Fold:
Amino acid sequence: MIDYRSDNTGRAAPEILEALVAANTGTALGYGADEWTARLQERFAELLETKVRVFPVATGTAANALSLAAASPSWGLVYCSEAAHINTSEANAAGFFGGGLKLMPVAGHDGRIDPDALARTLAAIQPGQLHRGQPAAVNITQASDLGTVYPLDEIRAIADIAKRRGLKIHMDGARFGNALARLQCSPAEVSWRAGVDILSFGATKNGGALCDAIVVFNPELADGLAVQLRRAGQVWSKMRFASAQLMAYIENGLWLRLAASSNAVAARIAAGIAGVPGLHVVAPVEVNEIFLELPGAAMDALERDGFQFYRRSATLARFVCRFDTSEAEADALVAALCRHCGEAKVDAPSARAAE
Structure:
């Protein structure tokens, strides 16, 4: 079996597990009152070049939902891409933890919000229209849920539009490391310097073990979020083990090396299948995800060959590369796609009818 189902199906990076073992000595106060969590605040402040509050959480869903609950009142509207994970895959956790806040999909392309579409949408709700929900926040998924990356100018444009209406900016960074590895810029440039107020900082999908984090840039949001986290059961009792993982993740650029590795394998696959008849790359391959339109018969054949991946529809498949996906595994997928998509095209009813 060669597994392309997700980047959370694989192993944790050895450095993460070593950090857990190293933290497993002596005693330490719980609920974040330990030296590891104190150092975590310092290390993230150094990484992001500004003072931040960092809250380890168990999952990316918790990070997203509780971040948005901090950024929006219960009557608020949160704007996001139609393809955003918070909109399609989290069982409306944001609405639940936000006490009724409503997600509002905004049109765009390749999984990203279009700034002009956001401006038009906001213009349709004038301040003081009390019969409607009130705009409160914008969610940017970086990298997007179609495997594309927001360039810095797009983030700034979205933030400028939002800030003019007093909206907060939340960034879902489940694949934040992959986006940074692609953009080749600093974490500060793509976050608070571009207008982001609060960040879901992903680690699990990129070689982490058991936690992600919420990073708060806007101090107005931090104290309320701390209460929300406790209420939601997202304050770790033995917090030092979560904090130790996150520190190891960013230490010496580990997270960016892991992300660059998975990005490179995805790019290798994309280059290998360019121009192959019978398949269509749905969105530019910019990080470690590849979305392909291809015949169902080709997907069946791939599964028989031992490839694991997710079928998003009868003709849409998603392939995700992990930090430890090898070039040999990438080349095997390329060869199989070239072989099976060609066969499926020949066997298609339209092809037979034309003969």
Observations:
- The chain has 14 helices and 15 strands.
